[in-house]
């Protein structure tokens, strides 16, 4: 494998990691940006999506079972997210610390619940036949590179989901309401927008996307009760680095983080690369406290 | 039996549900068995909840089986054994707490338990303070030597280095070291590196992934670049699933690039789905597929108690043998006193066991045979290689820790 193939290979790995990060962080960015709610149980929505895909693949067979699993993961996670919003978060608006604690509690309950039901060791989703294998590049400058179909599929999924969410926000009536509430909650309310329904919709959409992330993750790693924990920190990093409530920011930040850690891992071990990544984010926040993309929003109290 | 239960009732929760159940079962099952003395309490301390439960519950089961069998044969020195089972909850601090509870409050005569090195290190000062005796059943990194612990699990020279012997015999001299980032893999690889270089091999690379890590894309890339002939894998738990999945995705399943794993036994293979890891190698001191009479008897007894198809593996059998050897040592010493028992244990002769012949060395670790096996699609290992004799256990590797020795009085 030549030098350019190594760099290209790591770039591909970086993009592949970024696509999972983006799916995990998208919902967080939405609920953080629009509702100003920090949902500590967001990682567990990912876990729920993973377990739902596992269950679906157990009962549904055939080449496209995994696509069904994706839909069920989305539906199940957004349903659970909606339930969480109605039963817990709605009652704690304007009390960020209480929300933080309550959702953290929910996260612990969900983790232990998963441990009781599925056991502490991970369960597996076997990738469908058509995702087995990889594209091998055998000639030219990138000879020796291997692009597994599974990772290509996840990248594609992330791009599709990002476009759909962007379209939804830009082109639909619900998207319009979402933008209105995001820009000025009180004014929208005064104009007759049912903000609590918008909140519910945003939250359910966000957790649903996290469910998709869990489903995608299940293709390359086992689903464990703590799978959400290992991604929630990175998801928060993406949201902070990208700028609160910005889709474009989240996408750019995921790419930046994915490529940076893949690049760093050429020269050092995984643990050290993680340390360096955190240092980089801290430094970046020093110079651009509002992240890559700065959105002006009254919802965040900076009018 | 009854008076013992009644006497402990006054004390806190000493007479736990388990003990009461054990009392009831025992008094019901052996109404006529003659017991000369009061029952002897022994501690069983494993993680029954948390991440380690998957492995440790089965070790507890094996230890309980041995205790049952001893009681069935009339107990030790005419006294029945009453197991007091405690949950270490996969947390070293809780292991230390429960060890103290067992020794101080329950006044057990000995404790069987522990799995992670962290749990052992946390319990060590407790056993030293109360002069208890801990029987530790899991392979570990060595580099420790205490009179208050009987180390039956393999020392590095009984598992890791024999695997290296085997690899060199097979012509695999370019070795990639991959592990989870904690004490066992780091120490094991420190020892391995010294021996690989000493014997003229090449360390193709060395990588660590945080415990529970799931992204191996960069590691897989580095392995491809390094062109190793074999990977020595000390990854723990679920990371193994991600690793094997991601290796297979880029066309490097264990059938193409051999992997020697030190933390995948029959239990783990079963939980992960053997098809994923089939064809990978493992080094242990016991495989369920071993063909010897004591093993067949043990497998049959275990299946009767825990259901047909229940799987046995190396740490479980160590846990079982610990109980058997403890009872033998008590008989030899004629006393339950931990100090007398540990001295008697190292004077026991060779014992024929499911792992082959074993015997405690003067350093309180176990002479045992090393085996290398290859995992079959049915989840059992086919044995490919074994050491000629049971190996002397060496806690301090001569290359990695020169000048250090374990001498116990």
Tell me about this structure:
The complex is a heterodimer of chains A (303) and B (409). Chain A has 303 residues and is mainly alpha-helical. Chain A is built from 11 helices and 2 strands; from the N terminus they run H-H-H-H-E-E-H-H-H-H-H-H-H. In chain A, strands 1-2 form a two-stranded antiparallel sheet. The radius of gyration of chain A is 19 Å and the shape is globular. Chain A starts with a helix and ends in a 16-residue tail after the last helix. The C terminus of chain A is likely disordered. By secondary structure, chain B is α/β, with parallel strands linked by helices. Helix content of chain B is 42%, strand content 17%. Chain B has a 7-stranded mixed β-sheet with strand order 7-6-8-9-10-14-15, with helices on both faces. A 5-stranded parallel β-sheet of chain B has the order 2-1-3-4-5, with helices on both faces. The two termini of chain B are 37 Å apart. Chain B has 14 helices and 15 strands. In chain B, helix 4 runs parallel beside helix 5. In chain B, strand 1, helix 3 and strand 2 form a beta-alpha-beta unit. Chains A and B meet through helix 1, helix 10 and helix 11 of A and strand 7, helix 8 and helix 9 of B.
């Amino acid at each position: 494998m030549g030098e350019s193939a190594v760099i290209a290979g790591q770039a591909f790995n970086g993009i592949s990691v970024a696509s999972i990060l983006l799916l995990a962080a998208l919902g967080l960015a939405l609920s953080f940006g629009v509702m100003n709610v920090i949902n500590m149980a967001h990682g567990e929505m990912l876990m729920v999506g993973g377990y739902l895909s596992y269950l679906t693949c157990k009962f549904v067979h055939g080449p496209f079972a995994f696509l069904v699993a994706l839909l069920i993961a989305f539906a199940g996670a957004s349903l659970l997210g909606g339930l969480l919003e109605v039963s817990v978060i709605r009652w704690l608006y304007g009390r960020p610390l209480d929300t933080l604690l309550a959702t953290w509690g929910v996260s612990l309950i969900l983790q232990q619940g998963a441990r009781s039901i599925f056991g502490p060791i991970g369960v597996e989703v076997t990738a469908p036949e058509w995702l087995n294998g990889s594209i091998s590049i055998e000639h030219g400058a990138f000879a020796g590179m291997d692009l597994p179909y599974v990772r290509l599929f996840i990248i594609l999924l992330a791009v599709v989901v990002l476009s759909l969410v962007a379209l939804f926000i830009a082109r639909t009536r619900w998207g319009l309401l979402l933008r209105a509430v995001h820009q000025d909650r009180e004014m929208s309310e005064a104009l007759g927008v049912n903000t609590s329904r918008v909140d519910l919709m945003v939250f359910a959409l966000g957790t649903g996307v996290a469910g998709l992330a869990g489903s995608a993750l299940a293709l390359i790693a086992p689903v464990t009760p703590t799978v959400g924990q290992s991604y929630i920190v990175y998801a928060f990093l993406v949201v902070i680095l990208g700028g609160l409530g910005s889709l474009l920011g989240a996408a750019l930040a995921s790419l930046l983080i994915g490529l940076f850690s893949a690049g760093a891992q050429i020269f050092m071990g995984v643990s050290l690369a993680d340390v360096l990544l955190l240092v980089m984010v801290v430094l970046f926040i020093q110079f651009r406290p509002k992240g890559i993309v700065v959105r002006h929003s009254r919802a965040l109290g900076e009018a | 039996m009854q008076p013992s239960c009644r006497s402990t009732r006054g004390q806190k929760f000493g007479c736990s549900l388990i003990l009461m159940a054990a009392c009831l079962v025992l008094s019901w099952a052996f109404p006529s068995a003659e017991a000369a003395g009061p029952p002897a309490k022994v501690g069983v301390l494993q993680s029954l909840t948390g991440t380690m439960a998957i492995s440790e519950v089965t070790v507890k089961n094996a230890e309980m089986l041995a205790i049952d069998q001893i009681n069935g044969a009339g107990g030790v020195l005419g006294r029945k054994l009453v197991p007091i089972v405690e949950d270490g909850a996969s947390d070293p601090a809780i292991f230390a707490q429960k060890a103290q509870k067992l020794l101080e409050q329950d006044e057990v005569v000995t404790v069987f338990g522990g799995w992670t090195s962290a749990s052992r290190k946390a319990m060590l000062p407790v056993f030293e303070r109360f002069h208890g005796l801990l029987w530790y059943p899991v392979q570990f990194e060595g580099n420790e030597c205490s009179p208050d612990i009987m180390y039956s699990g393999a020392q590095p020279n009984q598992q890791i280095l024999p695997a290296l012997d085997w690899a060199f015999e097979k012509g695999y001299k370019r070795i990639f070291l991959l592990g989870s980032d904690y004490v066992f893999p780091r120490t094991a690889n420190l020892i391995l590196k010294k021996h690989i270089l000493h014997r003229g091999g090449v360390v193709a690379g060395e990588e660590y992934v945080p415990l529970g890590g799931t992204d191996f894309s960069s590691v897989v890339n580095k392995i491809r670049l390094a062109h190793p002939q074999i990977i020595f894998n000390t990854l723990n738990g679920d990371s193994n699933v991600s690793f094997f999945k991601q290796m297979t995705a880029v066309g490097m399943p264990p059938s193409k690039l051999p992997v020697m794993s030190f933390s995948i036994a029959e239990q783990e293979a079963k939980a992960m789905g053997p098809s994923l890891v089939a064809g990978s190698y493992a080094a242990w001191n016991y495989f369920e597929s071993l063909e010897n009479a004591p093993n067949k008897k043990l497998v049959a007894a275990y299946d009767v108690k825990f259901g047909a198809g229940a799987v046995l593996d190396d740490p479980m059998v160590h846990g079982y043998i610990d109980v058997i050897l403890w009872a033998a040592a008590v008989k030899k010493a004629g006393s339950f006193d931990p100090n007398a028992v540990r001295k008697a244990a190292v004077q026991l002769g060779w014992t024929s066991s499911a792992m082959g012949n074993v015997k405690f060395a003067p350093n309180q670790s176990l002479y045992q045979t090393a085996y290398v096996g290859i995992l079959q699609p049915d989840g059992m290992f086919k044995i490919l290689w074994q050491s000629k004799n049971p190996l002397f256990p060496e806690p301090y590797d001569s290359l990695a820790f020169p000048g250090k020795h374990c001498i116990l009085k």
